[in-house]
Design a protein that fits this description.
By secondary structure, this protein is α/β, with parallel strands linked by helices. It has four domains: 60 residues, Phosphorylase Kinase, domain 1 (2-Layer Sandwich); 231 residues, Rossmann fold (3-Layer(aba) Sandwich); 192 residues, Dimethylsulfoxide Reductase, domain 2, CATH 3.40.228.10; 110 residues, Barwin-like endoglucanases (Beta Barrel), CATH 2.40.40.20. 31% of the residues lie in helices and 18% in strands. It contains 24 helices and 30 strands. A hairpin with a 6-residue loop joins strand 28 and strand 29. Bound molecules: ligand MGD (2 copies), iron/sulfur cluster and molybdenum atom (MO). It comes from Streptosporangium becharense.
């Protein structure tokens, strides 16, 4: 693989690089030998010497026996030329019959910036298809839509993560960082050691909630009402920062009026959260000199996720937090490159630099970098679930190229997605392992992974990091960039599709220049020398932007926008037939669809199988104890899991992780109108004893 990188920074042991998994992108040293040794780096502020169990055991991804090393064509091992010729021939045939949109592309928020950029370019320039989207739609999209609406910019945390340690209060709504980003908890712990206080909103007593000074435990899907009540109390008790609101925001009057009807007693009936706890939360936030409000997927993965985030942003704005040093609103981003992956054009409505694909100036700029006529660039396509749901249908794409996602396990209403994938004329999956989705593909392309290749990742703070190659890939495996180059070569020309990540990054810098997510001044050398550079960074002599909103917001007039929002219930409420809420999420030991972590012995030992968490009262009614098999049934499907009785969950709610096939057979694909986020976090189910 062609590679040209600055010399790695001197490290204790091995090559300084970053974790394969989540958006904290913990720094780690990877030393290759018979086995791979991993030690945490202490120069990366996000983890500063810490790693979670997934990070510590990530070496097994490199040495484990379940690695794909040969292309597969209908299950048969073939050479790369045969595999790529077949894919190119089928793409040509499908497009001849169904037009450019007959072929779709699905990407992932785990892909490096270089891959995400190249995938978007490949779709628009080589395939000329509008049908491209990615799994980040299931992840960050509601927070992105709400922050764009309020601040004119979507950067997960618009401040360094270490600011949290200096806050006097943090409200974390719908995030379980103790399991999803364990080293994150250190920043919160430091805050608490300094006397700061942590408020957590979660329907379950999670490992994170147990560390909180105050825990609010709402019914799933009612955070919007809760946020309205918190703002109602802030206004009623005179805690609005009127000077800030006047100087830095627009639109407060409409919001002030709209929350008037959401008095705390009414919201107690909607959410189940006692009024006294709502008042206590406001007291903590309003009494803090510096405070942050953070949201996670618990509040965002709803058909009203965008409005829910807007309600929390309204609360933050009324308290005068965003754009003040040491305070703010932030979204706790998810996948390894969840931030960068949503900036460079693998999203249906987007071009690099966080530009809009329907903006003529954006099209002209990017087309010039790509050396094509702007009129040849397609327009916006379908969002992730809508795309998956359209596959193989009369009006939908007939072929799919999938890079970095396992939707048979992770997409909502996965039974429907399986039907759709089965109807395709061509399914091509690039992966490291035989994921559930790869196992159904016509063509499987074995690709290199994190420490076997280099590229940049943008962490949850908007800090662009260099994930260096630390070990040689197994013989026969190609990088995603090489795969895209190979396909481009067969479909019209490899020019503009280099396989060297650094060449791709240099083009990405030019394509993003002048955009919201401007990487023009970021180089591999700078990242190495400065332990990451915050975007926007428009020039090589620009210092980067750790706190983009200190002077102005990214809106045309520089002011933040309040948005009035109204509460409504979940898309599917409980009834006699389906009397319980199901919510879904994560456990410490596994990552996402589990394609990677279910192949690691230590992680399987820590968490071997799926489960159904339920309250003791419900367990008694069903006459089950922990370990008994349960069947969980929704209007869309059914699955089984072992009962895990836990007094920390609401009696009206059950929880399942989605790391194993099953939970998503149940979930509701109702979509948020603005972000097209599915309602992963609440649907109606019935629970029975199995067998
Ligand atoms: N171990 C592990 N870590 C990960 C990942 C992983 O798969 N495994 N994935 C990474 C990715 S991509 C992401 S997006 C992040 C996600 O990180 P988090 O957002 O922290 O993860 P979740 O477990 O999906 O959801 C958080 C919490 O939301 C709660 N919740 C459910 N419904 C509601 C509700 O209606 N309201 C509120 N307030 N809370 C609710 C759940 O009980 C859960 O504890 O984690 C990242 N880190
Ligand atoms: N019920 C429920 N469902 C959910 C969620 C939930 O909370 N509840 N959360 C949603 C969220 S936030 C997310 S982010 C999604 C994630 O769900 P998925 O999109 O399925 O994500 P992963 O399981 O990480 O899948 C990544 C796949 O790509 C492969 N891979 C890793 N690196 C690379 C690479 O560089 N190149 C290529 N070609 N392949 C690679 C991995 O081996 C794996 O098979 O799930 C969503 N689904
Ligand atoms: S917290 Fe995230 S980035 Fe850090 S070691 Fe764990 S999985 Fe890796
Ligand atoms: Mo995610």
């Amino acid at each position: 693989m062609p590679i040209s990188l600055p010399a790695p920074a001197p490290v204790k042991a091995g090559t300084a690089t970053h974790c394969p998994y989540c958006a904290l992108q913990c720094g780690m040293n990877v030393a290759a030998g018979e086995t791979v040794a991993i030690t945490p780096r202490d120069d990366i502020p996000a983890n500063a010497g810490g790693l979670c169990q997934k990070g510590w055991t990530a070496g097994e991804l490199l040495t484990g026996g379940e690695r794909l090393t040969t292309p597969l064509l209908h299950g048969r091992e073939v050479g790369w030329d045969e595999a790529l010729d077949f894919v190119a021939d089928r793409i040509r045939a499908v497009q001849a019959e169904h037009g450019p949109d007959g072929v779709a592309v699905f990407g992932g928020g785990g892909l490096t910036n270089e891959k995400a950029y190249q995938l978007g370019k490949f779709a628009r320039v080589v395939l000329r298809t509008s049908q491209i989207d990615y799994n980040g739609r299931f992840c960050m999209s509601s927070a992105a839509a709400a922050t764009n609406r309020a601040f004119g910019m979507d950067r997960g945390l618009p401040f360094p993560i270490t600011d949290l340690a200096r806050a006097d209060a943090v409200l974390l709504a719908g995030g379980n960082v103790a399991e999803t980003m364990p080293p994150f908890v250190r920043h919160l712990a430091t805050m608490r050691e300094r006397g700061g206080r942590l408020v957590v909103i979660d329907p379950r007593v999670t490992a994170t909630a147990r560390q909180a000074d105050l825990h609010l435990q709402p019914t799933p899907g009612t955070d919007l009402a809760l946020a309205l009540a918190l703002l109602h109390i802030v206004i009623a008790e005179g805690h609005v920062d009127e000077d800030y609101v006047a100087a830095r925001t627009n639109g407060f009057d409409a919001v002030r009026t709209s929350v008037a009807a959401w008095w705390p007693e009414r919201v107690e009936r909607v959410t189940g959260v006692p009024v006294a706890l709502m008042r206590a939360a406001v007291e903590i936030l309003a009494g803090a000199d510096r405070a942050a409000i953070l949201t996670g997927r618990g509040t965002e993965q709803h058909a009203k996720g965008t409005d829910t985030v807007s309600a929390f942003i309204n609360l933050a704005l009324a308290l005068g937090l965003p754009g003040r040093e040491g305070s703010g609103y932030g979204c706790v981003t998810g996948q390894g490159n969840g931030q960068g992956g949503r900036e460079h054009g693998q999203k249906a409505d987007q071009l690099p630099g966080y530009r809009k694909i329907d903006d003529p100036a954006a099209r002209a700029h990017v087309a010039a970098v790509w050396g094509v006529d702007p009129d040849t660039l397609p327009g916006p396509g379908r969002s992730a679930y809508e795309l998956l749901d359209a596959l193989g249908t009369e009006a939908g794409p007939r072929a799919l190229l999938l890079f970095g996602s396992n939707p048979l396990v992770s997409a909502p209403r996965a039974g429907r997605v399986a039907e759709r994938l089965a109807r395709l004329d061509l399914l091509v999956v690039s992966d490291l392992v035989m994921s559930e989705t790869a196992a159904t593909a016509d063509v499987v392309l074995p690709t290199t992974q994190w420490a076997e290749e280099s590229g940049t990742m943008t962490n949850l703070e908007g800090r662009v990091l260099l994930r260096r190659r630390a070990v040689a890939p197994p013989p026969g495996v190609r990088s995603d960039l090489e795969i895209l180059r190979g396909l481009a070569e067969r479909l019209g020309g490899a020019e503009g599709f280099p396989a060297d990540p650094r060449e791709v990054f240099d083009e990405l810098r030019r394509a993003s220049a002048g955009g919201i997510a401007d990487y023009a001044g970021i180089t591999y050398e700078r990242i190495a020398a400065e332990t990451g550079v915050f975007w926007p960074c428009p020039a090589e002599d620009h210092p980067g932007t750790p706190r983009p909103f200190l002077d102005r917001f990214a809106t045309p007039d520089g002011r933040a926008r309040f948005t009035p929002v109204e509460h409504r219930g979940p898309q599917e409420d409980v009834d006699g037939e389906y009397p319980l809420y199901l919510t879904t999420g994560r456990v410490l030991a596994h990552y996402q669809s589990g394609a990677q972590t279910r192949r690691i012995a230590a992680l399987n030992a820590a968490a071997a199988d799926t489960f159904v968490e339920l309250h003791p009262d419900l367990a008694e009614r069903l006459a089950v104890t922990s370990g008994d098999r349960l069947r969980v049934v929704s209007r869309r499907g059914e699955t089984e899991g072992a009962a895990r009785v836990n007094p920390g969950i609401r009696p009206d709610t059950v929880f399942m992780p989605f790391h194993w096939p099953g939970a998503n057979l149940l979930t509701n694909p109702a979509l948020d109108p603005a972000s097209r986020m599915p309602e992963f976090k609440v649907c109606a189910v019935r629970v029975e004893r199995a067998g």
